[in-house]
Write a structure and sequence with these properties.
It comes from Raphanus sativus. By secondary structure, the protein is of the alpha+beta class. A hairpin with a 5-residue loop joins β12 and β13 (about 325-335). The longest helix is centred in the N-terminal third of the chain and has 64 residues, at about 65-130. The chain starts with a helix and ends with a strand.
Length: about 850
Amino acid sequence: MAMAVANHNESGGDNINRHLDSSGKYVRYTAEQVEALERVYSECPKPTSLRRQQLISECPILAHIEPKQIKVWFQNRRCRDKQRKEASRLQSVNQKLSAMNKLLMEENDRLQKQVSHLVTENGYMKQQLTTTVGADASCDSVDPTPHHSLRDANSPAGLLAIAEETLAEFLSKATGTAVDWVQMPGMKPGPDSVGIFAISQKCNGVAARACGLVSLEPMKIVEILKDRPSWFRDCRSLEVFTMFPAGNGGTIELIYMQTYAPTTLAPARDFWTLRYTTSLDNGSFVVCERSLSGSGAGPNANSSAQFVRAEMLPSGYLIRPCDGGGSIIHIVDHINLEGWSVPDVLRPLYESSKVVAQRMTIAALRHIKQVAHERNGEVVYGLGRQPAILRTFSQRLSRGFNDAVNGFNDDGWSIAHCNGAEDITVAVNSTKHLNRFSDSLSFLGGVLCAKASMLLQNVSPAVLIRFLREHRSEWADFNVDAYSAATLKAGAFAYSGIRSTAFTGSQIIMPLGNTIEKEEMLEVVRLEGHSLVQEYTSLSRDVHLLQICTGVDEDAVGACSELIFAPINEMFPDDAPLVPSGFRVIPLDSKTGDAQDLLTANHRTLDSTSSQYVGSTTSETGSNPSTRCILTIAFQFPFENNLQENVANMACQYLRSVISSVQRVAVALSPSSGLNPVPGSKLPPGSPEAVTLAIWISQSYRQQFGSDLLRTDSLGGDSLLRQLWDHQDAILCCSLKPQPVFMFANQAGLDMLETTLVAIQDITLEKIFDESGRKALCPDFAKLMQQGFACLPSGMCVSTMGRHVSYEQAVAWKVFANCEGNNNNGIHCLAFLFANWSFL
């Protein structure tokens, strides 16, 4: 195929350098003519007829060539450029497919070896079952001397022996059958995939494996992977204690690494390991690592006391150069996180190979691919920021949130009391060493963090985080955001003097960039506000947040979903101080037999924070523990020295409010909810709340208009709800607030507004009308509030997508919770019916 393209290019190049003369014969362009044309082409590949005429008049050597021939030359020249680009693209794709084919063939060979190994093992087990008891007893006479008895971790020779053994074990996992690998669910290999991923089925600890093709040279990949804090978000610190040459061109390092705990319910982990970097005879590079025995506690014994020592079994990276450029990478992560040390409800999190795959293995390969795309100029970022700068912002947000969740003593955090809030932990950091930009916070007395973790049931982490991102007004308090933003500015107003500000309900998300698979998004969020004090109405009260959102793909098995944000200035500099807050939702991938443990886990924080909302659904969801997840919330508040107690009380109250709102949202998003927009579902399940609302709407309509909205009220409530949901006209209900907000709509209403049952709760009544429509609605609205109903003439409204909708007639009426009496105290909401609507 490449030869065919080349031949085509040669013939095209021959045609482009010929033109018709006055006698109708093809004549070659001279070198001077081609040079003149090429100069113009470099400036403007598609010149206008006027520009071509100008070219002929300016260049005497082109004077005898017809303008039509000049036009044809530029057409052929553009075609040749397009063919060259396509040939280059096809060659690149061909190289990629060849490398991927080689990778798949190697994977196939490995699987065949694994099958052969299993067959041999199966035959051995059959033979053992038929042997005599005496033969079994003879097995006890095997020499029990351990394989590594001659290793000495206190001498260079002993460390080299450990390193070589680690290398052999790692290679047997990366390309052999030492671990029984199975394909990672939902991660199918292919030419457009990041790589091939597998997880361990049965082994000591948990393990994950990945292999993929990256367009970077091997040494660059080695450099990136060894800098683990740059891509492993759970890595708090990595310190190389000792490094010496191995005598064969490689190096041996003794490393102490600390990692963050993902929740507030269990301590963090640390590792004391040997890392061996070397090259193989075939030109491949290897970085392998394993835990060493001994304390290796690191420079600060008090700091290490907050950690549980975890074990890293032989793991590492195998990087092989490709013939056509780039590298093939094999990654193996095999660890034992000592799950016995955490509450039973959390053990699935520490014993899941899927979690290790998402947090470590896949993250490493994705980061390398991201760097490769950035170097090739294939990534576009906003606001003119360089990719490395924006990546640093993402890392700082994640690191700041992890620091707040863990609250390490050596960072200056100490536990404070929160009046009776047993389910909320309040920590204070008065040292202000929040990050390397702490000088910007020197005017503050410190930072206070209120945090909690809770168990959620029957809700998707991706769906929950996506909702929290898109509907901030459902859980956030704009005044708290404004306070946090203001206290980061020198000379900001004190807590007790917060100026009254109202949130307009408008949230604008401005994307800065995202990773190649869009599993992480970096963005700036602008919250529009206005002052409630007359003298400050002319001043902008907008709040800006820098935010990362990860894990919004529902198909990513075992992925953690996060929404982390921090207040910033409008034109935030590269060294802007960040005080992150946010949410982390981690799915609990329960193993067989763990379901009962999850149901009966007796952890104070989990029980106290989840019982009021999820207790009623335990019987429905308890049989499906895979839908359980752990939600961790941490909010940070800067404070001045004399206001610590006030800010602590405010933080506790605010966090309780956020927890309550999030739990309410989680219940609404649950498939068992009555008013939940289940993907693919056209009818909300018949919850008591939905049925009751349908009855109130129908009864109030009959009371106000003297006729039935639905066919009959004698049928059961579920049937009434179905009639309301399937009604051909758009029926919407809004609240009786000073600024009415929609709270329910039937299917026709959702179609008319082009929204969902959850998103509709952010839409105000005035937003669906333009200015003329709002003016026309005012007298009818006053009539509605006075007599209880109103008939509106034909008109137009606007959907959430900006499309205009016309309707022939509309009626509105008050919906009473108690239809026996017509008193305003019993008004539940207002209902609107738009008849015969259609898009314009």
